[in-house]
Amino acid sequence: MAANLPEQAGKEAILVKGWWRANKWLLLRRFSQLSILLLFLSGPLLGEGYWIAKGNLTSSLTFEILPLTDPYILLQSFFAGHEIISQALIGAVIVTVFYFLVGGRVFCSWVCPVNIITDTADGLRRKYKIKGGARFSRDLRYWILLMTFVLAFVTGSMAWEFINPVSILHRSIIFGFGYAGFVILAIFIFDLLLSRQGWCGHLCPVGAFYSLLGRYSFIRVSAKNRESCDDCMDCFMVCPEKQVIKLALKGAGKGIGPVIVGKNCTNCGRCIDVCAKDVFKFSSRFNNDMLLNESKKEEVAP
Amino acid sequence: MIEHPLSRRRFIVETARAASGVALLGVGLGLYTKESKSLPVYALRPPGVENEDDFLAACIRCGLCVRDCPYDILKLSKLAEPVALGTPYFEARKIPCEMCEDIPCVKACPTGALNKDLRNIDDARMGLAVIVDQETCLNYQGLRCDVCHRVCPLLNEAITLEPRHNQRSGKHTLFIPVVHSDKCTGCGKCERACVLEEAAIKILPLDLAKGELGRHYRLGWEEKEKAGKSLVTPDVEHKYNLPEGLKYEHEGKGLLKDSH
Fold first, then answer.
1. Among positive and negative, which fits the CA dihedral A43, A47, A49, A51?
2. Which CA distances in Å does B236 have to A111, B233, B242, B250?
3. A260-280: per-residue pLDDT in tens?
């Protein structure tokens, strides 16, 4: 079978699996992203000062007991010269352990509100066949990550937080918008017209940090049924980090296991959604033995 | 693994390109950061901030202090406001600090940007009240406004009224409000309450409000008291050519008639 057109990506899965199953993980992610934001607005929404989560994504207190802190911003604070022995450190350790296990970029695809904007831009790019634009290395974000730490050290201040669209967006949603709309609009236009997945997939140092954090994460997407792949290319069309799929999906001949181990994979599960052949599923990184599937088959049908 | 298609030359060029592009961005952002670190005088930090530079290194802009302020005084700076983006502040003239005894904002701070060593709110130094305009302050005109004095949470300690002769009427007293920096917390209640169109008493940042003696400078009378005696050679008693029966007393009594 030939590759589908980009604007057709996911259509086949809807026909085969039905709309709900073909959008299952996308809907779950949107639910996760929006409900996390709502938790931070519980005070004004529920009234009587009842807060489920206070603060914002950089640091929060849930049910007045559970501290959570973004380890990236705390590291910036450390490089800016602040002693980080505090309640925030406990929160950062909890967050670090969590993302270390479930996958660092889970923050990007399941929590970060900017993801909704850049996904929308990417969807519109496919729909209206907007192609091309600026191309730069996907490693640029790691240079920017390094720069944010160097700048924090040199200026003695969390320099990146003066322009960080990630923290600007969620803080604005929770504490009042002001002119933040322009930053969001800029990211949207950048991703729509100037560069495909330009922000989340190339530049954002927050994502770069979480990529490194989840380098050895336990939960991974696996192209478990890769032998049924019919090369429709839908997963490549929708994947925000499509370079991570190829080795796992097409590496059987080279002795490469089916688990997507690339650190930039966001565990968004969109490839699982759009695949009409159910090639992908969530799995653990340890189910990556080349012979595992074959040996199991032998056990079942000797 | 798959052979990497990049030649060494291309690898070096691409790395240099990425590094220098990011370095340029870094220079721009660094300079912008330097500029953005300045704080306008009307923006006051919550209690427990000793130094703006340390604060900007420590504050992670989470807004927990804002949430725990029972009077909704604090707000986080938004884009295009001249306060470091996302950091908490308040404006005394709009809504001053209520000086809660349990200091919930400091307790809420997860990083220590608001210093937990501050346990007594009276030790807070958010700024210092200064009578910035004697020409409009009503008490300086001889009226008994006294509002700043009366609203002060440290009544008669941070602001006292000092009597002075009213030269205009010649027979009345001016009650001059005087701020004492060893007591004033900079809560801003006086600035908020000032009845003028534009407040004559304002909370200024400490370094702007306070002078400082040169480190070598000593006040003679204080040193004399510390040492218990004059530190310079005592004056030789001056000899006056006075008519008989008169003498001059140096310690303050002045001209005296000999009494015998």
1. negative
2. 85, 9, 17, 11
3. 988 899 999 999 999 998 999
A111 neighbors A36 (Cβ within 8 angstroms): yes
Distance CA B123, CA B46 (A): 13
For chain A, what's the residue count?
Answer: 302
Beta bridge partners of B254: B249
Rounded distance between C-alpha atoms, residue B186 and residue B170, angstroms: 35
Residue B202: which H helix or E strand, with range? strand B201-204
Residue identified by tokens 């070598």 is B216
Q: Could you tell me how many CB contacts below 8 A there are between chain A and chain B?
A: 156
Q: Select the residue from B62, B106, B115 to test the A interface by mutation, using most A Cβ atoms within 10 A.
A: B62
- Nearest C-alpha neighbor of A166 from the set A208, A213, A228, A121: A208
Q: How far apart are the first and last CA of chain A?
A: 32
Q: Are A238 and A9 within 8 A, CB to CB?
A: yes
**For chain B (length 260 residues), average pLDDT per consecutive 10?**
68 86 91 86 93 91 92 92 92 95 94 92 95 95 95 95 93 95 95 96 93 90 86 74 82 76
Q: Which of B25, B33, B36, B105 to mutate to test the interface with A (most CBs of A within 10 A)?
A: B33
pLDDT in tens, A175-222: 888 888 898 999 999 999 998 889 999 999 999 999 999 999 999 999
A42 closest CA partner among B67, B242, B97: B67
**Ranges assigned E (strand) in B52-200:** 75-76, 88-91, 128-131, 159-166, 172-179
CB contact under 8 A, B84 and A162: yes
Closest CA to B93 of B206, B190, B180, B186: B190
How many angstroms separate the CA atoms of A147 and B19, rounded?
Answer: 9
A67 contacts chain B (CB < 8 A): yes
User: What pLDDT was estimated at residue B34?
Assistant: 85
- Which residues face B201 on adjacent strands? B131
Sheet strands side by side (includes A53-56) = A53-56, A59-62, A66-69
Q: pLDDT at position A302, please?
A: 38
Closest residue, chain B, to A180 (C-alpha): B79
Which token pair is B102?
Answer: 């349990």
Nearest alpha-carbon partner for A158 in B179, B62, B115: B62
Task: Tell me which residue of B194, B200, B192 sits closest to B131, measured CA to CA.
Answer: B200
DSSP state of A109: I
- Distance (Å, rounded) from C-alpha B127 to C-alpha B105? 17
CA distances from B64 to A38, A233, B69, B202 (A): 16, 46, 9, 27
Instruction: Give yes or no for B30 touching A (CB within 8 A).
Output: yes
Return the biggest CA–CA distance within chain B: 121
Which SS3 state, helix, strand or coil, does residue A264 take?
Answer: coil
| Helical segments of chain B, H only | 8-36, 52-58, 64-68, 104-108, 147-151, 189-193, 206-209, 220-227
